[in-house]
Amino acid sequence: MTEPTPPQLEPMPEDWQRALAVVAHPDDLEYGCSAAVAAWTDAGREVAYVLATRGEAGIDTLEPEKCGPLREREQRASAAVVGVPSVEFLDHKDGVIEYGTALRRDIAAAIRRHRPELVITLNHRDTWGGVAWNTPDHVAVGRATLDAAGDAGNRWIFPELTEQGLDPWDGVRWVAVAGSSSPTHAVDASAGLDRAVRSLLEHRAYIEALTDEDPETYARRFLTGNATATGERFGGRPAVAFELFPRG
């Protein structure tokens, strides 16, 4: 019996100006959706990054006190390649992020600061496509981001943020989850793919600790392969997929 053909992915909404991407670690966005970010910034849209950690536990051969500053520098350089000037770090501890009100509050505060219409995060489910187990950090940050999109607009949740001058922002219209096994929408990656590769390559210390493969070969193979596979559901064009959750 043949498997049913997956439905084609819809184009992502384009009637927005500001986006905020919230993920756990340096490199999460570069593995997940930077070709889409490049396309958006090319079109004149504003994108900012917020990372829960500095990725200080991400390289086994490098102590956290040295690794964190290195990975922060790599992330800022990586973001610049795709036109993102604003990169913030929330200073939660890499590897042991806890889902809860403290994390939701920090992300809600970021949403109130940046006032985005589109919020982006990474796969918040237990597995990657039912095949590989997801990390607790990804699950916690993804889930907290989905929740914080609502928290940010409610003046009675985290009222201390209002006292700090962060007025409620109920303008989030969508939360888009990259790396989802149930994508609904996509962005054409054709114009942004080369910059996505260069953006991932800025995480050179991390990649060199991860694989013996030539970093550029590794980055291009990974991103091109994913974009090509996604493109089979997007009219044959290389693409970045998202699961889109409309709000309000």
From TrEMBL:
InterPro entries: GlcNAc_PI_deacetylase-related (IPR003737), LmbE-like_dom_sf (IPR024078). SUPFAM superfamilies: LmbE-like. Keywords: Zinc. The keyword Hydrolase does not apply. This is PIG-L family deacetylase. It comes from Streptomyces nigra.
